[in-house]
Amino acid sequence: MDDDIEGTPLPAIPHRKDISSDPESMHALEVRVFELVTELVPDAYDPYNQAADQRPTEQTTISNMNWLSETLEQAEILFRQFPMSRRDGQLIGHLLRILDDFEDFYSMLERKLQAESAERADNDAMNAAVCRLLLATAPTNVRFIIRLMYDEDILDRVTRWANADATSTSLHGLQLRCYASGLLSFALRDRSIADIVVNNESFCTNLLKRARFYANALEAEHAAAAAYMQDVQKKKAVSSKHKKPSVGTPSSKKRKLSIDDKKDMSNAPSSSISAAAAPPPPPRTADEHDDDETISTRLADLILSIPAPTVNHEQGPAPLMLLDLLYTVQCVGLMGEYLELLASALKDDIVGTSITLLHSAHTSVWSATLQLISHFLAHKKFAFSFLDAGGLDLVLAAQASPRFAHLHRSLGMCLHAFASSSVVTELILSRDPTRTALLSMGMTLLSSPYDRARQNAVVFFGLVVPFRSALEYFEAHDGLYTLFNLIRAGNLPKAAVQRQLAHDACLCLRQYVRVHFAVLAQGLRRKTVDASTSSSRMIKQTLGKPVDIDDKAFEQHVAILEAHRPCTMMCKETKWQTQFTHLRGPLVLLEVLDVFRSHTATTDPSSEPTSFRLWLVERALFSLQILRMLTLASPPMAVEICHTMLQDSQRTGLTILLDCAMTSHPRDGDIVKGALQVVCNCVCTSSSGDKQPQQYSKKDDRTTANNNTSSSSMAAPFPARAILKLAREKNAIKVCLQLLRYKRSLQHADAIRLLATQALLGLSKDRHVTQILEQMQIGQLLSDLIRNEPVLEENADVHAKFRECALELISHVTHRAPSASIHEATDPTVRKIEKANIVAATRVTYNPTELLVMIHDHLKAHGLHAAADALESEAALNLRASCPSPQKPIKKAKVALDDASTPRPAKKPKRSMAHHPKLLSFAQRRQQMLSKWKQQPSYFDKDILAQSMVLSSPKKAPSMAKKPLVKPTWLDTVVRQHLREQHRLCPHPVSVVPPFSLTASKSHRCHHNSQAQGGLTAAKFMADGHILLGTDHGEVLQMHLNQDEIVGLWTCHANAGALTDLSTNEHTRTSSLLMLTGTTR
Q1: Is the pLDDT of residue 118 over 80?
Q2: Ranked by mean pLDDT, which of 490-504, 648-662, 873-887, 964-978 comes out on top?
Q3: Mean pLDDT of the chain
Q4: How big is the CA angle at 899 (ends 893 and 903), to the nearest 5 degrees?
Q5: pLDDT tens digits, residue range 466-495?
Q6: Does the keyword Nucleus apply (predicted)?
């Protein structure tokens, strides 16, 4: 229903007989209006300006304007008596259309407000008639009035007229002040105009004083209000004796009565005081016309010196005073949110004025006062003062009035204003009577026939659902069912207000789900944290405090639930989730997304109004955020969301989500991100609980990875397989691959790339998807993206997560160890070519005896004992001295191997002083060591010789001694290829390597000096299995040869240069090691 101007004051004038819904009367009235407009518009009357003497006089023009204004006002009153959805087709609609047909009609009114016409002397009657005619067209012409006030000269002129002295004795002056205030009551709805007017201190002060003047003029209401406030303070004084008020609570401060209140209290009769001691009565059931006459008559007594109008169709003093009161209250209310006005308003007792006007029985006065209160509630000081004075009880008492239906929008604005401050809301909901009455009024307004009232009620519940008491009341009275109906009605809106209502309903639903989502996250965190730790570190939620559901807290809750996905899968379905599913909530949200998808696919976004595009996008965003929380908090609901079929479009939920992810809307970044988040939750719902860390064997990474892939895929339950199958059928792989290169929205590009990779990782749990991705060479695409920088530098953390997820996907699809995948994906092409050349040029060697021992163990494991014994005797294998094979499933041997592989410091034998040589000079010791080294074999020959001596018997078999050099066999080629593959997987391969070990517990890795900066220039072997290396940067490294790792690093003095010589005291030392270095400088 079109209720944009609910509560707009209408003059109390006698009804004219010619204004009715009779077709004949309507036709005659339309003809008369057409003739008058023709006379008022000069160009329409005389387009060639040839008969200036035939134009109507100024007095006739004023009379015609007043008649036209009165006709429009009467038609508006008739329309409000029989409320329809729109004015089109009614008498007021026909009359306003006639005015719109004249292009120069409103231009004529604008010219009459400009300086040339408005500043003439004795022109108050004409200016008043022009302002009244503009007000008569205001129900459908508010934008024109606001645009008219953008002219600073006209705005200053109208403000000066509205700021006229209240003691004026001129009827036209009173009319002009009243109608100018009415124009400002519409113009102040625009913030830019209100910013200018509020800086006019004299105008704001006079408005406040005028409002207080009218409140004092209503003596009966003023006395009742004073008695009511005194009774409220007495009750609080009595209750404070039994209960000590909390320190610092605003409600505990007593409100001081003004001087006028005290005078009225002393002069008020006892009957008025006793009547006000009870709860305030609702507005009386008298007719609106009687109320107008009663208040107008009492206000007209203030200006008895003003005579009655002498011109027909002009308003007299009595209705003008009532209109001036209503327009004054509205102007004060529209500027009530400004902090500049608060001090002056409190000084003029705006709270007492509001309480006084709420004791009135006039519906329009109530409506205007409620709007004033709703604006001033933006200030906490006013809100606590109003609550302390008992104003909330007066507002809630209106629900019992038969005129409650006429106050829906104003009451909705008050509820919205009360809920805007969490502190005020917490104070109200802490009181049982007011809490129930307030929430009951909100539920009643949620079903109001007025769209604006329903919108304010929806926003009210969106702000109060974080409180547990409001949440329970909302669920107990089917608030969720009402929200779903409002959202569905907004899919095909008939007016802009219905679009806004559906938007606010989606926002309220998101807040509702966020509250339950936060409660679930806090419960999971309390379960996972130790009881002793939680009591000291975690803050317990107070019952009366709201649940924190802002964006920052929401992201924290999402992180908690993502970290505890297996726990959410084991949780039982809660009551609100059951109710949400029973009311087909996922279907309602998917319908919203389908409307967005179908509209963006068939309509050019540039041809749409901006407000309509924002409405579409924000509704879709709210729906996606709700679906994300549902799939994360209740994983079984993901199956219903994906398989839900829409009857109109015959599309499944997963198809709609994928279409939203591929949208081309100008604001597609948020939509694509939200859709991918829901898809990731759906495809990763069941697999995340069954996911096990992959264990890669040192001997066969590929076999182990295959086994893990097949086991994780087959371990997925039936709902997971159903979702993955549906995703494969709906081209989810294609959508995710295309989004890997998404760059339309640079702000969201990195996050969308991460989400697309996570979706592919979830889809890869299906072996069919894994095969498809492997054939499409997904590893090469992801490797290129990994080596690139993030799209935006501030998204470096998101890009790091993308690298981890992409490497995991590559490892899963290619069935390779994660370390190999990392280097394969991150190394540039030049580095790959260099590593390949190094591996190809490396001479691969190994001990043949180790291969024979492995063959012997293999024969034994397959029951070929005779063949194994023959091989042992012929090859003269010493199996006791050989290392046990890692393939033997012997736990003790494995433990021994692990212990052997652990580096331990070698125990040095104690030497007696008798074995110490005599003291030699440095040159003698150096010559002695050089002679020893020349007689000893090299490091590589020594290693091979030592291993062959350990693995073979002391006496070699004659057959092996005389056997010539054998050419490489097929088995030798396979072993060498396997060892070369290990060498290829090294992060930093080198061309010269020691012999490979077939029985080592760790795979081969080439040594990389990541700590030293320079190149090697000197080396010295030590007797305990270490080697000292010198660099051209003056660094000395001590390296353990068997463990192939650096155990010490020293740096010489600055600018030492390249080290050319290294010497130690390892043979002569008695305590610590001493090193001497020679440099080029």
Answers
A1: no
A2: 648-662
A3: 77
A4: 145
A5: 999 999 999 999 999 999 999 999 888 877
A6: yes
Dihedral (Cα; 798, 801, 806, 812), 10-degree rounding:
-150
- For 211-230, what is the HEC assignment? HHHHHHHCHHHHHHHHHHHH
pLDDT, tens digit, 9 for 90 and up, residues 517-548? 999 998 888 877 654 454 445 555 566 789 99
Higher pLDDT, 1067 or 656: 656
Burial of 250 (0-12, 13-18, 19+ CB in 10 A): middle
How many other CB atoms are there within 10 angstroms of residue 280's CB atom? 21
Return the pLDDT at 975. Answer: 87
Tokens 């125990």 found at: 907
Residue 1046, phi then psi, degrees to nearest 5? -85, 130
Render 38-56 in DSSP notation, one character per residue.
HHHSHHHH-TT---GGGSP
Which 3 state secondary structure label does DSSP give 617? helix
In 3D space, the residue among 752, 824, 732 whose CA is nearest the CA of residue 782 turns out to be 824
Q: What's the fold here for domain 575-687+718-826? A: Leucine-rich Repeat Variant (1.25.10)
Using DSSP bridges, classify how beta strands 1045-1051 and 1035-1040 pair: parallel, antiparallel or unpaired.
antiparallel
Contact yes or no for 486/454 (Cβ under 8 A) = yes
End-to-end CA, the chain:
95
pLDDT tens string 803-820: 889 888 988 888 776 655
Q: Tell me the CA distances in angstroms from 362 to 296, 367, 441, 591, one per residue in order.
A: 11, 9, 21, 45
Instruction: Say how far apart CA 538 and CA 522 lie, in whole Å.
Output: 10
Which two structure tokens, joined as six digits, stand for 580? 């949400």
d(CA 307, CA 212): 25
Q: Which two tokens stand for residue 650?
A: 């015959």
What SS3 state is found at 1035? Answer: strand
| Alpha carbon distance 335, 189 (integer Å) | 9
Among 664, 581, 595, smallest CA distance to 623 is for: 595
Using the structure block, give the residue that is written with the tokens 């009827």: 171
Q: Is it the case that residue 708 has pLDDT exceeding 80?
A: no
Radius of gyration of the chain (CA): 45
Residue 207 phi, psi dihedral angles, 5° rounding: -65, -45
Buried b (16+ CB within 10 A) or exposed e, 154-176: bbebbbebbbbeeebeebbbbbb
Top-tier CATH class for 28-43+54-198: mainly alpha
DSSP three-state, residue 746: coil
**Which is more confidently placed, 53 or 622?**
622
- At 430-468, the pLDDT tens digits run 888 889 999 999 999 999 988 889 999 999 999 999 999
DSSP 246: P
Phi and psi, residue 1038, nearest 5°? -105, 125
CA distance 1080 to 1014: 15
Count of C-beta atoms within a 10 Å radius of residue 527: 10
According to DSSP, residue 693 is labeled -
Alpha carbons 813 and 774: distance in angstroms, whole number: 6
Q: In angstroms, what CA-CA distances link 298 with 102, 221, 366?
A: 41, 12, 17
965: left (phi over 0), alpha (psi -120 to 50) or beta: beta
The tokens describing 179, both together, are 């109608």
State how far the Cα of 5 lies from the Cα of 541, in Å rounded to an integer. 43
Cβ-Cβ contacts under 8 Å for 107 (sequence gap 6 or more): none
Q: Which long-range contacts (CB under 8 A, 24 or more apart) does 398-402 make?
A: 398/282, 398/283, 398/366, 399/437, 399/440, 399/441, 399/444, 400/282, 401/282, 401/283, 402/285
**CB count, 10 Å around CB of 386?**
24
Instruction: Report the CATH architecture of 1010-1080.
Output: Beta Barrel (2.40)
Smallest Cα–Cα separation from 500: which of 464, 465, 462, 459? 459
Eight-state DSSP code of residue 202: H
Please name which of 995, 983, 1075 lies closest in space to residue 1036, comparing C-alpha atoms.
1075
